[in-house]
Design a protein that fits this description.
Bound molecules: protoporphyrin IX containing FE
Strand order of the largest sheet: 1-2
Number of helices: 6
Largest sheet: 2 strands, antiparallel
């Protein structure tokens, strides 16, 4: 996959995840519990696809160390703390936790996601694309080669010795 394809995949998966998060909130507000759980399940898959594309971007950049040190723990925190709304949602559905607990877990998780997203954008903005480090840019087009002349460079068959 080229970097452009990875970037397109990342932004498509991220936009889908955000749309599904809004869908999860709307279905919950409307008390459509089955729809809420379905949207949440699809959102988790979309988030995993987003993480896959984000990880695939890594080898194409040289990251500035400080922004990377800040972003990585927040990215792990956001991924790990997804368990909180999932578990409290399940417990609330089974009548073993209040909706308040579930909402608190959702709110906390959304904060970690926003922090991971913000610092991820910062890390990418501060990074150097590997293509420019390796001199991978095509650079100016070299001048066209003059057409081969039989006088300047005779064909091997025309040689007499
Ligand atoms: C990241 C995942 C999740 C998010 C973002 C999320 C979001 C929400 C929100 C914002 C509400 C409160 C709506 C309101 O009344 O203002 C809610 C309610 C609820 N959630 Fe979740 N949720 C998630 C996962 C789950 C899971 C995994 C389950 C069940 C297995 C679940 C079951 C429920 C139920 C039963 C309600 C109450 C709906 C009602 O009032 O009829 N949620 N969720």
């Amino acid at each position: 996959m080229t970097l452009l394809q990875i970037q397109i995949g990342f932004f498509a998966a991220l936009t889908t995840s955000v749309a599904l998060l809004v869908g999860a909130a709307v279905t919950a507000k409307l008390h459509k519990v089955k729809a809420h759980m379905t949207v949440v399940a699809v959102m988790v898959v979309a988030l995993l696809v987003t993480i896959y594309f984000a990880e695939s971007m890594g080898p194409h950049y040289v990251f500035e160390p400080f922004s990377r040190q800040v972003h990585l723990p927040l990215a792990f925190l956001a991924t790990g703390s997804l368990a909180a709304p999932l578990i409290t949602g399940f417990l609330h559905w089974r009548g073993r936790a209040s909706v308040k607990t579930h909402k608190l877990a959702v709110g906390g998780w959304v904060v970690t996601v926003l922090l991971a997203l913000g610092t991820g954008i910062w890390m990418l903005a501060a990074a150097t694309p590997l293509a420019s480090v390796e001199g991978g840019h095509p650079g100016p087009t070299p001048p066209a080669q003059p057409a081969a002349s039989p006088v300047a460079s005779p064909a091997p068959s025309a040689r007499t010795n």
